[in-house]
Amino acid sequence: MGKAVVYTLLATAFIILFVFSTNKRHGHTRLGLTRRLGYKASHFDPLVSRIERSAEEKGLSYHVDLEQISYVPEVEDAHEYFDDEGNLNTTLRLMILFPLLENAPKDGLISAKELGAWIGQQAVDRLSYRTDKVMAWHDKNGDGAISFREYLPQFTEDDIDENKKRHGEAGWWMEQFNNADVDMSGNLDFIEFKDFLHPEDSDNEEIQKWVLREKMKRMDDDHDGKLNFKEFLEYAYNIYKSYAEYENAAALAPTAEDKFAELDINKDKYLVAEELRPIFRYLYPGELFYSKYFTYYLVYEADDNKDGNLTVEEMLNHENIFYNTLHDDSLDDDNFDYIHDEL
Question: Could you tell me if 98 and 110 are in contact, meaning their C-beta atoms sit under 8 angstroms apart?
C-alpha cells in the first residue's frame, strides 16, 4: 500500500476560517501562504468529504494524524479503500481519481485548468452541503425558504422595528438579510441563503459592499468611513500583495502607491467600499477563492518536470499533499490571525 493517511475522529469542532485582522501585515512567504490553504481548501478527494460529513452527523470532527490509528465511519463503498487498521490507501484512490480529472483532452495529463475545475467543484459541493444542513435546521415550516424570524428567532418584533444597526443587533442582521433577498420576497431561497451564510463566496454586489464596509470599520482609524493611503497600506495592501504575488508566481505585485491609485476611481485620495470591490476576494477570501490557490499549490509542489501539468506518476510521488490539507496553527510562524466570523 502507498503512503497511508489516518483520519482520527475527534469530539472537538475544527472549523477555522481565515479573515483579515486589523493587525499590520508584513510580506508573506509562499510557505506561509500555502500553510493557510489547509484551513480553507476543500478536500481533494470527495471520499474524504463524505467521511467528514459522516463524522459531523455523529457529532464529531476529525483531523489528519499520521501516526495514530483510528476507525472510519460507516460510509458507502469506503471500506474497500481502507485496511483493517483504518489506513486509507491513497495510492489506490489517486489512481481511481486520475481518469476522472483527466478529461479534456484524454492525454495522460491533468492540466492546471482540469485540476482547478475539480477542486472548485469540491468547494461548491461543500458550500452547498453546509448551506443545506443549516437550512434544514432552520426551515421550521418546511417551505424550502428561510425567513428572518426562522433564522434569528431571538429578535422580537420590537427589536426589528427599532432597527438598531450596531454589530450583531437586529438591524445589522436585517440589512444583510435584505441584501441577500434578491427577489425581495421576504424569505431566502437556497441560493440567497447560501450567499447570506457565505458572503465571502457570494457574487452579490450588495453583500460584498456590506462586508467591505464592515471590514473597513476595523481599518478606518480616523472613523471617516473611508480609507486613506496610510490606512490602506497598514491594513489592506500586504494581504492583497501576498495573494497577488502567489497568484502570479515570480511577478511582483503593484506597489502600494500604484494599487491605491488604480482603486481610487474618483481620484479623491480615499477609498470607499465600492472602490475596494476589485480586491474583495483578496481581502476576504472564501472557499472558492482558496480552491484556486490550493490548485496552484498542488501543481507547484507535484509538477516535477515543471511543464504545468501533472502525470499520475507525479501525483503518486507527492500523494500526501493531496490528502494532508489540515494543519496545526503552531506550524504557522508568520503569525497569521484566524478568527471565526459571525457570518
Answer: yes
pLDDT, residue 38, reads 43
Residue 83 CB-half CA count within 13 A: 14
Dihedral of the alpha carbons of 278, 284, 285, 288, in degrees to the nearest 10: -70
d(CA 91, CA 246): 29
Structure pTM?
A: 0.76
CA angle, 62 then 67 then 70, to 5°:
50
Phi and psi at 146, nearest 5°, equal: -115, 125
Using CA atoms, how far residue 131 sits from 108, 199, 339, in Å, is 36, 12, 20
- The type of residue at 111 is S
Q: Which helix (H) or strand (E) holds 213?
A: helix 205-219
Please tell me the distance from the alpha carbon of residue 143 to that of residue 161, in angstroms, as a whole number: 25
Instruction: For residue 97, give the nearest of 75, 121, 73 by alpha carbon.
Output: 121
Mean pLDDT of the chain: 80
Which of 304 and 11 is assigned the larger pLDDT?
Answer: 304
Grid cell locating 46: 470527495
> Residues 309, 115: contact at Cβ < 8 Å?
no
**Cell numbers 452527523: residue:** 57
Rg (C-alpha) for the chain, rounded Å, is: 22
Residue with cell 474497500: 80
Rounded CA-CA distance 103/109 in Å is 9
Residue 12 exposure: Cα atoms within 13 Å on the Cβ side: 3
199-231 pLDDT tens trace:
999 999 999 999 999 999 999 999 999 999 999
